[in-house]
Amino acid sequence: MDVIPAIDLLGGRCVRLYQGDYDQVQTYGENPVEVARQWQEEGATYLHVVDLDGAKAGHPVNLTAIKAIACAIDIPVQVGGGLRDRASVASLLNLGVQRIILGTIAVEQPDLVTQLCQEFPDQIVVGIDARAGKVATRGWLETSEVLATELAQRMAIAGAAAIIYTDIYRDGTMQGPNLEALRELAGAIELPIIASGGVSSVRDLLSLLSLEPLGVTGAIVGKALYTGEVSLK
After folding, report:
1. Catalytic: which of 51, 129, 171, 204?
2. Based on CB atoms within 10 Å of each CB, which residue in 15, 23, 98, 182 is the most buried?
């Protein structure tokens, strides 16, 4: 199972939000390139980057920082946040990003996701961010009536390479991942699932390992790395 460090960008800085709340922000680094290099040096095989400004604005905002990160490290980078049209997706891939994470348009424009999966095979990942099992969109500022499992099944048919599942109520809280929701999701689709949100300890990672036979192939870790609760080494 891959342990994937997260860099959340807000105003060009590395931050973490509490439950996706832009009013509850903590800064962990002024230079995201230095942070990316640190995670690579400590053994990361992949890097997860979220453009928080982009998620809110509906289009990429932190392009300069994302390009600098992609150019500075050798490991592949996946990026999400505000990617809601083909031009935005293509621009990031042209910067050297390996995989694109689509969220809002999976709910609002599923046909576009299908087209993008066909045009950029194995490079489109769908991020499903849920509150109480229902999918949140537009930087987690809105909650739809779409169930996470239903959206995952649709995106599997669309051709997504993987699903990143985030339980918003766990994100940034250090309360552990939602194993029950992950197990339900894994039972609904054949795609690889990357767990995100709530990982606070090696014990949490070991609990996720029990879901690996079901298709949970990785875990994104953010706050626990920055606070030192989990050592990537």
Report:
1. 129
2. 182
